[in-house]
Amino acid sequence: MKRSGIPDMASGSTRLTVALTCVAAVVAASMWATTAAADIAGDPAAPVPSASPGLGTLEPTPVSSATPIASATSAASDSPSVTSSPTATTPATGEQTYLISVRAGSEAAVAASITALGGTVTDTFDKAINGFAADLTPEDAAALAKLSEVSRVEADQVVSINAGAVFSDSGCTTNSMGRIDDGSSPSTPLGFNANWYGTSYSSIYVNNNGGISFDDGRGGFSDWGSIDLTTTSRPLVLPLFTDIDTRNAATSAVTYGPLSAAGNTAFGSTSGYCVNW
Fold first, then answer.
1. Could you read off the pLDDT of 185-207 as tens digits, one per residue?
2. Residue of 211, 164, 148 lying closest to 18 (CA atoms)
3. pTM for the full model?
4. Can you give the pLDDT at residue 10?
5. Are 227 and 240 part of one and the same domain?
6. Alpha-carbon torsion 82, 84, 86, 90, what sign?
7. Are 79 and 175 in the same domain?
8. Residues 223 and 143 in one domain
9. Nearest CA-CA partner of 256 in 179, 190, 161, 194
10. Cα–Cα distance, 240 to 27 (Å, whole number)
């Protein structure tokens, strides 16, 4: 658990602390369900991106020697080449969805390997991970994980996390964004002025995806995957910046508001504003 906040900023005699509380991938007394997985080890030399940080790993399911699935060849590549699996000619039984992370430029080759193994590509990803979601048997998933073009194979699962807000105050629940995906609050008054690197702001936009933007006159802020912090000109604070969808019944809506008088005492003479994701 950690607390992300904005440092105190002077503007005349007024100082600001915006209390932004987050708990790992969940904030504000919510249970957040997300796709995650037990990992099947891939190429040990490959980078290991993950759509599901923090989960334990599982060893690959051994492939039965009686039913070989992949054959190795050294003529064209150091990696095993995939041949058609016995499961490709039989009804799809025992399949489950896997998330496959691949090396850049290997997408077409890995997609072809999935098909050769008898699997079905169901989704293609190019943001959180570079790769696919595919329906495969555990044996075929283990065979796919051995390819050098594949950096990770993990079973797609739903994980619920029970957690509470780091900072609790009645003001934190003054407003609710409701159950939405990729949304922004309207311009919302802070109740005081904030000096953000020499520019004074009095309102913010709250992003459902774990960030805020001071109101710079450019409208709502609902992005999550297209922000480059090295080039953006918007005044952004991103303590928990990811793709959050609170339409799932196991989650709680994002709430926000100015701290109560009691809550402000925790910060001395500093005014505070709270957002719970």
1. 999 999 999 999 999 999 999 99
2. 211
3. 0.45
4. 38
5. yes
6. positive
7. no
8. no
9. 190
10. 9
